Amino acid sequence: MRLRRLSEIARQLLTAWKVACASRPSPDRQPVLFFNASTRLSGLSQNAAFSLLTSWAVRLSGTPVIHFVCQRGMSRCVLGTDETKPYKPMPCGMCIRQSQVNFFGAPIRWFTYRCEEALAASLQDLTLDQLLAYQHPVPKHWSLNTDSCPLGALVLPSLRWRLRRHHLHDDEPTRFLAREFILSAWNVAQEFFAVLEREKPQMVVLFNGLFFPEATAAWLARQLGVRVITHESGFQPFSAYFVDGEATAYSMMIPETELTPTQNALLDANLERRWQGDFTMAGVRFWKQMESELPASLKQKAARFKQVVVVFSNVIFDTSQIHANILFKDMFTWLDELISVIQEHPETFFIFRAHPDETRPGKTSRETIAEWYARHTTQLTNSILIQPDEPISSYELIRLAQFVLIYNSTIGLESILLGKPALAAGRSTAVEFDTVFYEKAPEAYWSRLKRWLTAGPDPVSADRIERTRRFLYYRTYRFSLPFGEFLEATSPVGYVCLKNFSPADLLRSPTIQAILGGLFEGKPFEVDA
User: Fold this and answer.
1) How sure is the predictor about 273, in pLDDT bands with cuts at 50, 70 and 90?
2) Number of neighbours of residue 141 by Cβ within 10 angstroms
3) What are phi and psi of 97, to 5 degrees?
4) Higher model confidence: residue 1 or residue 298?
5) Cis omega (within 30 of 0) on the bond before 492?
6) Which of 41, 104, 274, 390 is the S-S candidate for 16 at Cβ 3.0 to 4.6 Å?
7) Cβ atoms of residues 301 and 291 within 8 Å
8) Cβ of 28: how many Cβ atoms within 10 Å?
9) Contacts of 408 (CB under 8 A, 6+ apart)
10) Is 17 left (phi over 0), alpha (psi -120 to 50) or beta?
11) What is the pLDDT of residues 418-462, one digit of tens each?
């Protein structure tokens, strides 16, 4: 393992050296500023690789690149914090060593941590709610259009993600982490402002845009009128999604033209693999093996009811939930309100399917659908819970169902393609294209659900299926930019190493051409499959 790791590092350094030798940045061009402090600690994660390869391509295109890099620049960061032991020291040494490898031969602006004692003192006795509402005055010489920086709001998604829960406890460990994230975010803001002022970048390229280091940088850049591009993992192996704005929202423009036979065939092959459990997200494969048939006991129990409805949950702390929580405060609020509907319909069997990512090693949720279900078991006599690690096919559950309920899960799209209506309680990009069924007000949502339960669901029309197919095709193949020609999987899961390639190979890549076109020519960040 150690020899393999050394080999991967040597290959990366050699490629970086080749890029540095081939780069001839023009001094009259404004630089592009890259920042991704929340993609990895040691090794090269997929998202770190997407950023790194993009930065190399920008340099090779003749535009200067500057990397804003953490060098013990935060007292606590998103990945370095142990959610069970938040007071534990950060693993900064391994992170800095990896940064030195990643950014070999490139201009780096390191930033270190300086605790602002006055701010620390003002935060010390605040409740958690007060911390999350905290706004810090900005210096007048920053010349922003606001007098304060919403530090509490900027760190909230990171707190939820790191603590693996949506509903945070107002206890000292949580308040400690909130204070440290706020102090660290303010240090990032001051250091990032200094770099923006000194370097005058034409744009900044950030990972995700919601974790507090990058979120703080994005907030400040937008306040100063600097263009912000964010990126996230895409929907096919080794792929990324780039966008002006919020990458986690996955906004996209999809033409109304029908898919070609070739495009349909490509989508069908992808769907066939997914329906067998053969798919990954950000390098993670959820199922080693998926059962092709439902357990006989489940089918026998379902047969005792008039109809079956399957309820698919999401991981509550996922950053996508920020965009989903429109009709309801959060997923558990929706589920709480669903209880009375379930009780009113004893003729219906409700199957709750927990998301498989809830039990992913190293990312196990601490606020789960199983805990929620256990609290309400006596009220949910006409229901059952499928645990996240049970290899029961979600697609066979859909085939068993009259219709399905989702929050903002992709499974709703696949339900439509299987001819089963899906009613979404959380907002997603998919609802903009009239794929899954969605209402714009809670009252309308409950009205439709109750109508479906009593009179049957609205049928899935051929037009809706066609729109859903177009959405899935474009999201998977047009806007998810593939980097597989440059990357291959390594350990741990989700990490990658570089393949052998030359700088010329990088620039010839359709993915890289699409990114450069998006960065410098105003084109969409998309490729033709």
Assistant:
1) confident
2) 8
3) -60, -40
4) 298
5) yes
6) 104
7) no
8) 6
9) 314, 320, 321, 323, 324, 424, 426, 427, 428
10) alpha
11) 999 999 999 999 999 999 999 999 999 999 999 999 999 999 999
Give residue 213's identity as a one-letter amino acid code: P
Give the start-end residues of each E strand in 24-180. 32-35, 65-70, 108-111, 136-137, 148-149
Task: Look up residue 106 and give its amino acid.
Answer: A
Choose from 249-263, 286-300, 334-348 the range with maximum mean pLDDT.
334-348
The SS3 assignment for 501 reads coil
CA-nearest of 63, 73, 67 to 36 is 67
CA dist., res. 395 & res. 383, Å (int): 18
Across 339-364, average pLDDT: 92
Which stretches does DSSP call E strand in 73-202? 108-111, 136-137, 148-149
Contact 243, 218 (CB under 8 A): no
Residue the block writes with tokens 């193949």? 477
d(CA 182, CA 134) in angstroms, rounded, equals 9
Q: Which residues pair with 35 in a beta bridge?
A: 206
Contact 348, 405 (CB under 8 A): no
Let me know: does 400 contact 302? Beta carbons within 8 Å.
Answer: yes
Confidence at 289, pLDDT banded by 50, 70, 90 = low
Rounded Cα distance, 40 and 214, in Å: 13
d(CA 9, CA 7): 5
Q: What is the pLDDT of residue 285?
A: 46
Q: Which two tokens stand for residue 202?
A: 């034409």
Tens-place pLDDT, residues 24-52:
888 889 999 999 999 999 899 999 999 99
Q: What is the architecture of the domain spanning 261-478?
A: 3-Layer(aba) Sandwich (3.40)
Residue-range domain boundaries for the chain: 2-113+196-252+479-520, 261-478
> Which is it for the CA torsion 333, 164, 88, 121, positive or negative?
negative
pLDDT at 97 over 60: yes
Return d(Cα 172, Cα 162) in angstroms, integer: 16
How high is the pLDDT of residue 2?
A: 65
Q: Which residue has the tokens 């196990």?
A: 364
Q: How far apart are CA 217 and CA 211, in angstroms?
A: 10
Copy the structure tokens of residue 60.
Answer: 């090779």
DSSP for residue 500: P
Cα 360 to Cα 377: distance, rounded to the nearest angstrom? 25
The SS3 call for residue 66 is strand
pLDDT tens-digit series, residues 219-241 = 999 999 999 999 999 999 999 99
Instruction: Give every CB contact of residue 9 below 8 A, 6+ residues apart in sequence.
Output: 101
DSSP notation for 332-366: HHHHHHHHHHHHH-TTEEEEEE--GGGG-TT---S
